[in-house]
Amino acid sequence: MKCADGVKNKIRPLFADLYDSLMFSYFDGIFGNAFCDDTTAPTAAVICCGDFYFAAGDKSFGADMLKFCSDNKNAVIVPDSEELAKALCACDGQLKIVKRYHTCPPENDFDTDKLRETLSRVQNMGQLKLSMIDEELYKKALAEQWSESFVCNFKDFADFSAHGFGYVLTDNGRIVSGTSAFSYYDKGVEIEVSTRKEYRLKGLAQITAAAFLLECVRRGLTPHWDARNLTSLSIAQKMGFVFRDEYIALEYK
Fold first, then answer.
1. What is the mean pLDDT of residues 72-81?
2. CATH of the domain at 31
3. Is the separation of the CB atoms in 239 and 216 below 8 Å?
4. Beta 222-224 vs 188-195: how paired, if at all?
5. How many CB atoms are closer than 10 A to CB 86?
């Protein structure tokens, strides 16, 4: 497959059935790369954005599409149809089909009073400290695999501070939970939420998410929450997001 970054308008129709803010970032020229079978009249293409790979078009190019993610065991492959999903699985027996969930912001804006109430719970968290991600916390987030997605899709801290932001809870300086911008486009951001394993089920993600969403409201940005599982969907709904649809993706076993 050939680089398609110079023919974005030609591959755009192939992705008409897919919805994701990461694709908004790509088509805005901010994040990711794309490849297609033919730059003159493409019939198959893949958009690569970090660990996410959006595949669309002719299923006979399935093996070619997978070449871009075969060495990334954290890959999330989003096909434009169930037919393509099955074709991709047939090309690589290590792939499995999983369900994910799209959400959308509430129609009448977020309930900022409720978000502030959630944020106030940090006062009952003992020694845990809530902070906006600065350069020191940026480096700490990058240093660990579980938290690197808070900042890793930005070139450096200058890029992150100019186009992204995030909030983390720390325990004696150690990041234990956070919500940050996974990516951005001209009108919004994709949300990344994660908590260190031993600190889960304590409501920490809700606190950092509330801080992040209040900042989105202040900046006039549209936040996007793509839920990996039902737990993530539940947190999103508690924050005010509305379930949009269920979709299939592929991950490595």
1. 95
2. 3.40.630.110
3. no
4. parallel
5. 16
Count of domains observed in the chain = 2
Q: Please indicate, yes or no, if residue 153 is contained in any of the structural domains.
A: yes
Q: What is the pLDDT of residue 4?
A: 86
Among 93, 112, 128, the domain-final residue is: 93
What percentage of the chain has pLDDT greater than the value 70?
100
Question: Tokens 């600190």 label which residue?
Answer: 199
Q: Give CA–CA dist 30/33, Å, rounded.
A: 10
User: Side chain identity at 134, as an amino acid letter?
Assistant: D
Please state, rounded to an integer, the average pLDDT across all residues of the chain. Answer: 95
Say whether both 154 and 80 belong to one domain: no
Q: Cβ-count burial of 18 within 10 angstroms (0-12 exposed, 13-18 middle, 19+ buried)?
A: middle
Residue whose pair of structure tokens reads 């794309």 in the numeric block: 34
In a domain, 152, yes or no: yes
Label the pairing between strands 95-104 and 226-227: antiparallel
C-alpha 114/C-alpha 238 separation (Å) is: 10
The verdict on 109 and 234 lying in the same domain is: yes
